[in-house]
Amino acid sequence: QTVVTQEPSLTVSPGGTVTLTCASSTGAVTSGHSPNWFQQKPGQAPRALIYSTSKKHPWTPARFSGSLLGDKAALTLSGVQPEDEADYYCLLYYGGARVFGGGTRLTVL
Amino acid sequence: EVQLLESGGGLVQPGGSLRLSCAASGFTFTTYAMSWVRQAPGKGLEWVSFISVTGGTTFYADSVKGRFTISRDNSKNTLYLQMNSLRDEDTAIYYCAKDVGIIEVVATDYWGQGTLVTVSS
Question: Which residues of B71-86 are buried (b: 16+ CB within 10 A; e: fewer)?
Answer without folding.
Answer: ebeeeebbbbbebeeb
